[in-house]
Each structure stands twice: as structure tokens, then as C-alpha cells.
Amino acid sequence: MQNEQLMALSHRVRRHVIKMATNGGCFIGASLSCVDILTYLYGNWLNLHRDRLTDPDRDYCLLSKGHDVPALYGLFAELGFIEPERLGNHLRPDDDIYWHPNRNIPGIEFHSGSLGHLLSVGLGIALDIKLRGGPGRVVVVLGDGELNEGSVWEAALVAAAKGLDKLIAIVDRNGFQANTATEDLIPIEPIGQKFIAFGWSAARIDGHDFNALEQGLATIPLAAGRPSVIIADTVRGKGLPSISARADRWFCNFSPREIEMLLEELEGTRRAELESETIVAR
Amino acid sequence: MAQADERIIVMTAENRAAIRGLPARLGPRFVDVGICEQTLIGAAAGLALRGRIPVVHALASFLTMRAFEFIRTDVGIPRLPVKLVGSFAGFVSEANGPTHQALEDIALMRGIPGLNVWCPADLEDMLIGLPAILRDPAPYYIRYNHLPATVAHTDFQPGRAEILSHGEDVTLLTYGTFFGECLRAAEILRAQGISAGLVNLRTLKPIDTEALVSAARNSRLLVAVEDHFKIGGLYSILAETLFERGLAVPTLSLALDNHWFKPALMAEVLEYEGFTAAKISASVLQRIHEARS
To answer: A114 in contact with B at a CB cutoff of 8 Å?
Structure first.
């Protein structure tokens, strides 16, 4: 896809995400920060087709932080993995579309929601691809707050020890975790240097710039024999200034009227006036 | 209470929903370690070794399961006075999905020697019991519950159940989230001419053995209602207790039997999984009618 098509696609995905932030709500900020990363991966990079979602030679994409899954479901609706109308089943007990990923949804490789699991699961998949031989690459999208979990760093050590250069971690570096800015709680920078010290190769890019995503992912592995990490600088709530300006907009459950205003804000035609409780923490 | 007692350190692994007001009031006695539950528990043990009473708060699933071996080894073996507060347990995790569903937390926690388990029925029940729990030198797992109270609760003592009513036909045994539903279910049953009792167990360890034995002797049916797996929770405790006492009475388990609950908002989960007052009472009535026919 050309950049214009990618931008149009990510815009439509953002509309889906916003529409899921009502009737019970969703983790809107983290979902909006990774939309462009996921749009680029699924639009241009992953060897994955909707008719061959279980092909053993496919590329894998694992969403480790999990609560950003509305972005993925929005993308799946646009790519024809699921019927777009199905997004309207969000939080209904007769479907499987809720706050974290469920494998019953076509395209979801593994469930998540408990942080710090999928780098090790991705490691296992990459290890088998190496053992059997095959073209598949494994992308694991990590949250920056998720890097608090020790299991991420255990997996990083093991992946480097096994020389898994088809394993790629992408850190959605939106700067926030649930309650606070990451650097105000347990500072995690310099992220790239930490991974490099653990035996990885690292690059840092603008996670909303499709040219930067293309360049960053063009030469994977970044170094032969090493797993790669791309630290993608992003904005929590990207596309909605009334959310991205607020550290406390993490989990949001908006009224239908607020959703209408946010959709208009996304189009740049107005600024939403939000009245819902600022924090509904989970 | 934490403000008044310098020994209390409130800790979390970045789950601040229930304790949002505390950081400013406690200053350095509020410790947020970030999202790392194992380190949270290890650090709490270290603080307890120095005479502190760590009150450790996290989502019940990650607290009791991610850090299970740290709880067992660093808190359980030395029996340190750490109070583990698990929030969003059972059905309270709503639409988060199985990763967040703590439905085996009680089974895990009560299996650790010396570690007690307290499951208050609502916010008022929790506030009544808290001073005694903090005074108790034992480690505790507390199934946090801030649902609004539906009755005026009586005084609290660890190991003593709150007996709200006696029933000759049936006694509903419950704790935590489902207390309010069971209260209404008992009313529905009475309106249908059933003599129904209700017991709020409060602490599942130590368990009020006498309350269970008394209910078994005076009721024709005992029903354990819980948002927990059938294995390892109240129904298991009931079975262990009755068997030890040589009591064989009809029982019914209303719990999650070998499956996760369907993720959705609370009202829909209760309806879908059959735990509204109407559905609880219907399940009990069906069992009573089966027994009579």
C-alpha cells in the first residue's frame, strides 16, 4: 500500500476504536497509540493473508500488552478477517470481542491481557521456525509499561542466547502506563541500550510515520544472529487531542454524545467536550 | 488506619483503582513498584522482616497467581504479617477475559500453611473486619470487595461466620460478591414458602466449622454459592468439613464448574452464568423439587 492508503486505513481503524469506547468502554489511549504500527505491519509487512491465517509459513504478530486489541479488531474488520458488523458485539456475552484478545477471533494468534507473556510465547514460535526451517518471522508488540515485568527480560536473554534473529519486538513507546508516565514511576530508559546489553539489536523510530516504519522494518534482522527491537515512539490517544493531552485517559467509557464529538475531533472539525469520569481504572 | 499506624506500608504493582487517594496521604509509606508482582511480594517480605505490616494491593489474578511461589515461599513459610489485597476477583473482572479472572485464588491461598483467607461481603463488611485483620499477626489474603452494603452487618471475628437467618429447607452459604444476590434469592425462596437460611462465611480460613455443621444438622439442603471454581473454594471446604464430621447431607454447588465465565459487564455476566438472585433461587427450587419427587 502507498502511504495515502495506509493513512486512510489507519484513520478508519481509529474510527472503529473510538466507537468501542462506549457501552462499557475500552482502553482507548493505548489502542490509538499502536494503530499506525499495526496498520503498517498488516498492510505492508506481514506475510499474512486472510485466506491463509493458519498457514505454518506465515508471519506471526502477537499483541502482548493485549488491552490495545480494539486497534487490531478494527484492522481485522477493515482487512476482511471478520465482518465489520461484528465490532458491534463488543462486550456482549454472545461473542468473544472484549477488553483483551481472544483466539476465537480469526487473526488472533494468542490471547493476552496478563502482561509479559508473549515475548516468551513468540520466542517459542521463533525457536520452532528456526528448528524446522521456514520463512516465518515473529513480531511481538510490547507496551512500554509492560517492560516493568521481569519475564520480558528473561525472554530477551533467552532469545539472544538462542540467536533468534526472526524474532522482532516492537515497543509501543507511548510514554504512559495505567496511572502515570512511565518515567515518573520506574524509569525504563534507555530502552534500546538495555536490549542491546541483553544481546539484541535495536532501532528507534517515529511510530506514527509510515516512511519511518518502512525503513525501520526494511532490514530485519537489524544484525544477523540477533533478535531485533524497534522502539516506536508514539502518542497515547493519537488522533484525539482531548485524550492525548491527558495522562489519566487510560480506560474510558464515553457517552454516545461524547463518541460523536470524538469522531468529529478525529476529523479535525471540532474539539470534544468530555464530561465522563476521567478514570475508570481496571 | 494506615495514617495512624507507622508500621503499615501500602504497596501495589501499579493497580491504583482502589487506593487512589493514598499516595498523597502516606508519602513514602506508599510504594508502587510498577508492574512486577514477584518483586512486590519479595519486597513486602523484606519490609515485614523489619517490623512493618505491608498491605499489598494488586489485581487478584496477578497477585495470587503471577506471584504465587513468592507468596508461598517469602510470606507463607516465615508466616510474615503481610496482608495481600486482591481486587477485581471473581466476576468483578467483568469483560477483561480469562487472563484477569481470579477464580482459583481462594484455592491457592488457603493451601498455604498459616495463610488465612478473608472474603468480605461488601464495603461495610470489609470496613468492620479490617481492624481485626490488621491486628492479627497472621498473613492474610483479602478478597477486596467494595460493593455497597445491602444489610447492616454484625461484629467481626476471624473464623466466625455471620449467620443472617436459619432455614429448615435450605441454607445458602456464600461470601463476597454474591452475598447481595443470595440475600435476595433467600427472600424469593421464602416468598415461595421455602424455609431458607443465609450464612455469610466472611473468613474461609479459618472456616467457621460450627456454622457449617449447625447448618448441616438443621437444613435439608446446603447450597454453596461462589464466584470461584467449584474445585478448591467454599464447596470444597464444605465437603471437607462435613466428611470429617461424618455428616452426609444433600449439597448443591453453584460455582464455575471447570470453565471460565463469559467476559461481559457484570449484569450480563450474572444473567449469562446463572447467578442473579432469580436464577440462584430457581436452581435451588429445582433441586428441592427433584429431592421431593
So the answer is: yes
Residue A196, C-alpha cell as written in the block: 542491546
Nearest to A149 among B17, B35, B272 (CB): B35
Q: What is the pLDDT of residues A109-149, one digit of tens each?
A: 999 999 999 999 999 999 999 999 999 999 999 999 999 99
Residues in contact with A114: Cβ distance below 8 Å, sequence separation at least 6, in sequence order: A66, B61, B62, B66, B99, B100
Answer yes or no: are the C-beta atoms of B266 and B145 closer than 8 Å: no
Per CATH, domain A3-281 is 3.30.70.660: no
| Residue A172 to chain B, least CA–CA distance (Å) | 16
Residue to mutate among A98, A104, A120, A280, with most B CBs inside 10 A, is: A98
Asked whether the beta carbons of residue A178 and residue B14 sit closer than 8 angstroms, the reply is yes
Q: What strands lie across the sheet with B251-256, from one edge to the other?
A: B162-165, B196-200, B170-174, B222-229, B251-256
- Helix (H) or strand (E) holding B26, with range, is helix B22-26
Which ipTM score applies to this complex?
A: 0.90
Residue A209: Cβ within 10 Å count: 16
Restricting to B residues 43-72, those with a Cβ less than 8 Å away from any Cβ of A are 61-62, 66
